[in-house]
UniProtKB/TrEMBL annotation, chains A, B, C:
Keywords from the UniProt entry: DNA replication, DNA-binding, Nucleus
Major localisation: nucleus
Organism listed in the record: Cucumis sativus
Superkingdom to which the source organism belongs: Eukaryota
Residues annotated as domain Proliferating cell nuclear antigen PCNA N-terminal: 1-125
One term under GO cellular component: PCNA complex
InterPro entries to which the protein is assigned, alphabetical: DNA_clamp_sf, Pr_cel_nuc_antig, Pr_cel_nuc_antig_C, Pr_cel_nuc_antig_CS, Pr_cel_nuc_antig_N
Lineage, opening ranks: Eukaryota, Viridiplantae, Streptophyta, Embryophyta, Tracheophyta
Database matches in Gene3D superfamilies: 3.70.10.10
Location(s), subcellular: Nucleus
Family: Belongs to the PCNA family.
Function of the protein: This protein is an auxiliary protein of DNA polymerase delta and is involved in the control of eukaryotic DNA replication by increasing the polymerase's processivity during elongation of the leading strand.
Domain Proliferating cell nuclear antigen PCNA C-terminal: 127-254
Gene Ontology biological process: leading strand elongation; mismatch repair; regulation of DNA replication; translesion synthesis
Protein's name according to its UniProt entry: DNA sliding clamp PCNA
Length: 266, 266, 266
């Protein structure tokens, strides 16, 4: 028996919107400690990891570990029917091949039950080892999303270069080239507007903008994004979910074939 | 000679938007008592009835009963050229094959005349007898529109079931099923947010969601919608137009072929 | 060496949006007095003239006259990456085949450099003689844009007729005809809401609505538009750019083949 009651139901709506374009089908894993997901995107290039801790739910009952295979597009269709102020409860009976999403309006005058069929999905859980990163950048999530979108109008890849002074995003394409530098800035009025750089050594890595833009679908989940970079490790783009967990995206850097590290690759 | 001056011209714009997707061509009937329309939708499944009473116009002159055939899409194109605060006057000379829509801006600095060709349209006026309904549901029009839209993402038909406690909207489709229950609630701050149920006997009827969604185009006309249901009678979905009349939509229930009354039909 | 620093960078963004649909490639001419452009639209029917005077820039350095050929669509892509509050600096080295647009955020925390390749464009500069116009209409730019858009839903051409009392915009199409009259009105609260007519003799001229609608893309540049009309001269549709210059569009009237001056032409 599974029953997870989330007062701030809009969080779950936002989580789905942030990952459904990247992942078609995935297993949601439910245990005593939380509700989580780990999945590769459909082209097996990027990895998504979601965690919603049990403490973040108003009511959390999970009698035994279960893994529920869901089509994220169908799940998203159902969650879109929840109001932004609705309380969402996820329910499943033991051995059932369906999951039920219950939406309660704040006044309790409208109660909706959406029942969705579960799927059998083969998946292997990858262990993601803790790693030391050469540089960690924390910046406003809206700013990061804007930069990825802007650079996409010029080129296909972004070079992210971190120094103590700031982080530089560069691209090059047929119509020209672009460099955007965000300076470290911790003296802003609101902490979520700060750009903070922790750096052990400078890094400069190249990534496909298509994936970066896809990750920024998670922007509504958090005011800030954290980008962790090391040579030879996938970048981690993390959006924290207040008091509950996170959505993390992993993407391997592109290996450059020549010195020109901003040249777009086919 | 016909001259109808409507100070709140945006009402006429909203009326057109509410029916133009359902009906292509229709006769507007003008008499001493009011301006009205009755028309089947293009697939002859749903019926629309509009009434704008003479008292609702600032000036209402209709020397003799006339019936003016109009293409609603063209009429809508012209009415879209009226500002939302404009006064609209409908004018036609006796025997003319055109109608003129005059728009006056609130400051009277801008006066527009749009002249549209009339059409000959065969139509028979159906008598709609007064009927006793098993159940009448009054609810916020925005809520009804939201429910019809949400259920359309799951299935093709909606079962509307009324009991004394509330009204239930159900559907079923390939990806799962959905039930939305709205409880009777008359103790809200604003009367237009109430859900009120008058019931003589319980009813449960099935309708095509495509038509229901089309009817909800009338939502901007009224804060509330009234749904009148009886077995073996078409449902009436009514949007009142403040102090002037109404737009009513009629739709026959689907006859179920088996016990499973939420099964979508081809 | 060229370096033009424009504090209100959004002006340059708006200028590009106002002309990029009309003109594909054009030479920007830079001299000690200002930054200007003159170009025919791609079908060689309309002419665009832009002037941004040197005094309007915070810093203006132009060592010698140069003409820089740019693809306006690519330039627009780059300028869209500037924030609305950003300071924009246009930079070019002598003899360089690129131009750089630098965007500085108001806090100086984000600095972007976009480098675009220049093009060789053949163009001849037309001398536009000063002319006496029969009638000059100044009216709110939003109102003019609305009228051109509204009339486009009915017909393909607009007849603009000016008398001392007002200006009339007329069209005719398959579904009917339309006349919109704006009365001279100088007693409004805000000067930019006035409709002011200076008339030496009445004029009535016909223009293609497709071009008029294209000109109205400049509406965000100015609250008012000035329309200068003479028989046998191209109309001038001018949007002033506060304290800096203007965007002007020139379009020849259509010659009517019969008396019916509102008949649409192929």
């Amino acid at each position: 028996m599974l029953e997870l009651r989330l007062v701030q139901g809009s969080l779950l709506k936002k989580v789905l919107e942030s990952i459904k374009d990247l992942v078609n089908d995935a297993n949601f894993d439910c245990s005593a400690t939380g509700f989580s997901l780990q999945a590769m995107d459909s082209s097996h290039v990027a990895l998504v990891a979601l965690l919603l801790r049990a403490e973040g739910f108003e009511h959390y009952r999970c009698d035994r570990n279960i893994s529920m295979g869901m089509n994220l597009n169908n799940m998203s269709k159902m969650l879109k029917c929840a109001g932004n102020d609705d309380i969402i409860t996820i329910k499943a009976d033991d051995g059932s091949d369906t999951v039920t999403f219950m939406f309660e309006s704040p006044t309790q005058d409208k109660i909706s039950d959406f029942e969705m069929k579960l799927m059998d999905i083969d998946s292997e859980h990858l262990g993601i080892p803790d790693a030391e990163y050469h540089a960690i950048v924390r910046m406003p999530s809206v700013e990061f999303a804007r930069i990825c979108k802007d650079l996409s109008s010029i080129g296909d890849t972004v070079v992210i270069s971190v120094t103590k002074e700031g982080v530089k995003f560069s691209t090059r394409g047929d119509i020209g080239s672009a460099n955007i530098v965000c300076r470290q800035n911790t003296t802003v009025d609101k902490p979520e507007e700060a750009t903070v750089i922790e750096m052990n050594e400078p890094v400069s890595l190249t990534f496909a903008l298509r994936y970066m833009n896809s990750f920024t679908k998670a922007t509504p989940l958090s005011n800030t994004v954290t980008i962790s970079l090391s040579s030879d490790l996938p970048v981690v783009v993390e959006y924290k979910i207040a008091e509950m967990g996170y959505v993390r995206f992993y993407l391997a850097p592109k290996i450059e074939e020549d010195e020109d590290d901003t040249k777009p690759q086919a």
